[in-house]
């Protein structure tokens, strides 16, 4: 909501409206994120296309619900180990970016910071390797999106996006292993 000083009233607009319009405007399974949907060939395609019995959008929503439900469960199990909490949050963010629809590479940034923070809290070799891999993956995702294959250059037959997609899924798997 936005406060209008002259009239002393609040009205809907500003950041709220921009955010809602922004989210609703993306009707694509993947926005050049090089995630699961790019690997399956759905980059820049409608999220309403079927994948098996359900649409990509439904699958993406199920993935989000799964991560949102499992994160508090894991928190209840591991709440005494506070150094694991940033990893749980990073897993929620990265899992959502990797498996949900309407995602963009820049949404992964908080996960990278959280993983580096988790390494700073408890430096281990596994956390270090996870932080390095996620940092490299984040760079590859954003660099590929903005420099190598932006939307106007991307075609479905490219190999590089699929390689980066596999690497991203690997990094999410590695984060899952390090977290649990």
How would you sum up this structure, described in words?
By secondary structure, this protein is mainly alpha-helical. It contains seven helices and four strands. The protein has helices spanning 14-25, 36-39, 56-78, 85-99, 109-121, 125-148, 160-179; strands spanning 2-4, 9-11, 50-51, 54-55. It has a two-stranded antiparallel sheet. Strands 3-4 form a two-stranded antiparallel sheet. Strand 1 and strand 2 form a beta hairpin. The termini are far apart. The mean pLDDT is 89.
Short characterization:
Helices cover 62% and strands 6% of the residues. The chain has 180 residues and is mainly α.
Amount of helix: 55-70%
Helical segment count: 7
Number of strands: 4
For the sheet with most strands, the description reads:
2 strands, antiparallel
């Amino acid at each position: 909501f936005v406060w209008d000083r002259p009239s002393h009233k609040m009205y809907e607009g500003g950041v709220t409206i921009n955010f809602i319009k922004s989210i609703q405007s993306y009707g694509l399974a993947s926005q050049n994120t090089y995630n699961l949907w790019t690997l399956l060939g759905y980059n820049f395609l409608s999220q309403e296309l079927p994948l098996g019995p359900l649409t990509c959008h439904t699958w993406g929503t199920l993935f989000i619900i799964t991560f949102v439900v499992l994160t508090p469960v894991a928190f209840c199990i591991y709440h005494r180990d506070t150094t694991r909490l940033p990893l749980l949050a990073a897993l929620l963010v990265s899992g959502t970016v990797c498996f949900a629809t309407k995602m963009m590479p820049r949404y992964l940034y908080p996960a990278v910071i959280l993983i580096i923070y988790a390494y700073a809290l408890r430096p281990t070799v596994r956390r270090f390797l996870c932080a390095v891999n996620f940092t490299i993956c984040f760079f590859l995702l954003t660099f590929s999106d903005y420099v190598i294959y932006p939307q106007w250059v991307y075609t479905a037959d490219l190999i590089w996006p699929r390689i980066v997609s596999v690497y991203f899924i690997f990094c999410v798997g590695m984060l899952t292993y390090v977290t649990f």
